[in-house]
């Protein structure tokens, strides 16, 4: 195995080169080749995993002894290797698995729980502040009247501007148009409706971003399983997840066990604690990394 072969296989594609519309085909071919190369050589070269994690932008994960130890456990599991080889997962899938494992630490999960509680308290405080605003507005400035006047003045100025720009005929009944528009935008003249519509959307976002289930046992394993599904979706099989939980957590799971963990899971797309990041070199427009990063 020559180092130049590794560099050639893992050299980023230059997005400025004219590939005749076949860039995606070449990209898919390249990541398939990277997976084949790794599976063929990782037992021969103990440092290959470090080089791959560095090339794919995940080297920071292997600075933690626990992550490195469990990566070695995974790579020494022949059943996982066979399942991985025949799966739709590419080489970066191994990096993502270690990232999901790292994010399944007690420390990380405690932070998630604290973040959720913090957001809930923010919403409680927001609702209380709005209630205080309504209670203390008497004899000062009624918020409903204020909103209604703002809407009325805003529409009046907008219609005047349209007439000046000859966008509408100056002979039309501008007042009638204004009233029709106000009727459509009535929500913006009602403070309660406007606030609680916003509040409802904010509460929804807090809820769907919460991956934890109240009073559940085996939180680390359950979170690990759910986050794998959120990250890989259909690309990862339940068989692979079973092998991973057995290898990393020494917990035997079967198909039924996986389904039970996922049964009450929050599988909303924005729930996953990772997001995609593409890094492009400023100098030569080369795609250096396409990876998932930790939000926290």
How much helix, percentage-wise, in residues?
55-70%
Largest sheet: 2 strands, antiparallel
Report the count of strand segments.
Answer: 2
Strand content: 5-15%
Taking all Cα atoms into account, the compactness measure Rg is: 28 Å
Total helices: the number is 13
The general outline is: elongated
Element-by-element helix/strand order: HHHHHHHHHHHHHEE
Alpha-beta classification: mainly alpha
The strand order across the widest sheet is 1-2
Stretches where pLDDT is under 50 for at least 5 consecutive residues are 275-296
Average pLDDT reading: 82
Describe the structure.
- Strand 1 (274-280) and strand 2 form a beta hairpin.
- Helix 5 (78-86) runs antiparallel to helix 12 (238-249) and helix 8 crosses helix 9 (174-184).
- The longest helix has 30 residues, at 106-135.
- By secondary structure, the chain is mostly helical.
- 61% of the residues lie in helices and 5% in strands.
- The chain contains 13 helices and two strands; from the N terminus they run H-H-H-H-H-H-H-H-H-H-H-H-H-E-E.
- It has a two-stranded antiparallel ribbon with strand order 1-2.
């Amino acid at each position: 195995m020559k180092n130049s072969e590794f560099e050639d296989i893992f050299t980023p594609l230059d997005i400025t080169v004219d590939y005749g519309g076949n860039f995606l085909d070449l990209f898919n071919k390249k990541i398939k080749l990277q997976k084949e190369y790794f599976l063929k050589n990782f037992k021969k070269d103990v440092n290959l995993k470090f080089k791959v994690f560095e090339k794919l932008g995940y080297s920071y994960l292997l600075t933690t002894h626990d992550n490195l130890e469990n990566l070695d456990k995974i790579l020494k599991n022949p059943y996982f290797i066979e399942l991985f080889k025949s799966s739709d997962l590419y080489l970066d899938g191994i990096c993502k698995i270690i990232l999901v494992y790292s994010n399944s630490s007690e420390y990380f999960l405690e932070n998630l729980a604290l973040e959720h509680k913090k957001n809930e308290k923010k919403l409680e405080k927001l609702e209380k502040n709005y209630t205080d605003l309504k209670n203390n507005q008497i004899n000062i400035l009624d918020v409903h009247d204020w909103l209604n006047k703002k809407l009325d003045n805003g529409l009046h100025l907008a219609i005047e501007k349209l007439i000046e720009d000859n966008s509408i005929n100056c002979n039309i009944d501008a007042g009638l148009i204004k009233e029709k528009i106000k009727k459509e935008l009535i929500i913006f003249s009602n403070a309660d409706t406007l606030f609680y519509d916003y509040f409802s959307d904010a509460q929804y976002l807090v809820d769907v971003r919460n991956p934890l289930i109240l009073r559940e046992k085996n939180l680390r394993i359950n979170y690990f399983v759910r986050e794998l599904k959120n990250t890989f979706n259909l690309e990862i099989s339940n068989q692979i997840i079973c092998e991973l939980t057995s290898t990393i957590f020494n917990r035997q799971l079967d198909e039924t066990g996986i389904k039970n963990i996922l049964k009450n899971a929050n599988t909303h797309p924005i729930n996953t604690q990772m997001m995609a990041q593409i890094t492009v070199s400023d100098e030569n427009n080369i795609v250096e990394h396409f990876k998932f990063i930790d939000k926290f």
